[in-house]
């Protein structure tokens, strides 16, 4: 999972040792975390924010490259471990044979939608950052992410189970 890989990257980057304990979701993890049986976990901001606001969780750091608007006082991991960046992201993909004019039209319309102030404000309120990208910028981002994960998986000798 992205959280597991972020923990592996933190473990390698800090030359520390952690034990990965897999859970099927936050509802299964939460009792162990709140009772102290689990020391830390990586979560999406949108999942963690309600628990932070209720006082049940303490934020150690965010894994985004820059501090986030909803938690501006919280440092990034990258402030202590340069280059560290792990975010949950999604994208719109199409079959390889899709004509370029269709791809460009979709990109333009999606960017127009995402730049709407009401949409942008709602996404940001839910702790979701959505950059406005060109097709080539998104392709470059995907390649960089794929390379990062491939290198990490090899370095950590993670095997598919």
What does this structure look like?
The protein is mainly α. The protein folds into 2 domains: 1-88, 3-Layer(aba) Sandwich (D-Maltodextrin-Binding Protein, domain 2), CATH 3.40.190.10; 89-161, no CATH class. The chain has helices at 2-13, 26-35, 45-53, 100-114, 117-125, 135-156.
| CATH architecture annotation name of the largest domain | 3-Layer(aba) Sandwich
Query: What is the end-to-end distance?
Result: 13 Å
Total helix count?
6
The fold-level CATH name of the largest domain is: D-Maltodextrin-Binding Protein, domain 2
CATH class of the largest domain: Alpha Beta
Order of helices and strands: HHHHHH
Q: Rg from C-alpha positions? A: 18 Å
Helix content: 40-55%
User: What's the rounded overall pLDDT mean?
Assistant: 91
User: Which sheet architecture does the biggest sheet show?
Assistant: none
Shape: globular
Structural class: mainly alpha
Question: Which terms summarize this structure?
Answer:
mainly alpha
Produce a short descriptive summary.
It is built from 6 helices and no strands.
Furnish the topology, listing elements before pairings:
Blueprint (H helix, E strand, L loop, with lengths): L1 H12 L12 H10 L9 H9 L46 H15 L2 H9 L9 H22 L5
Helix pairs in contact: 1-6
């Amino acid at each position: 999972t992205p959280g597991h890989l972020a923990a592996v990257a933190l473990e390698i980057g800090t030359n520390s040792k952690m034990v990965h304990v897999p859970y099927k979701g936050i509802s299964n993890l939460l009792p162990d975390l709140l009772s102290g049986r689990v020391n830390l976990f990586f979560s999406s901001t949108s999942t963690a924010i309600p628990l932070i606001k209720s006082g049940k969780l303490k934020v150690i750091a965010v894994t985004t490259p820059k501090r986030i608007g909803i938690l501006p006082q919280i440092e990034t991991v990258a402030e202590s471990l340069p280059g560290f960046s792990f975010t949950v992201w999604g994208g719109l993909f199409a079959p390889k044979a899709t004509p370029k004019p269709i791809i460009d039209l979709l990109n333009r319309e999606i960017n127009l939608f995402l730049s709407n102030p009401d949409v942008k404000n709602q996404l940001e309120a839910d702790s979701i950052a959505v950059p406005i990208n060109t097709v080539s910028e998104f392709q470059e981002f995907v390649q960089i992410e794929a390379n990062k994960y491939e290198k990490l998986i090899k370095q950590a000798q993670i095997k598919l189970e």
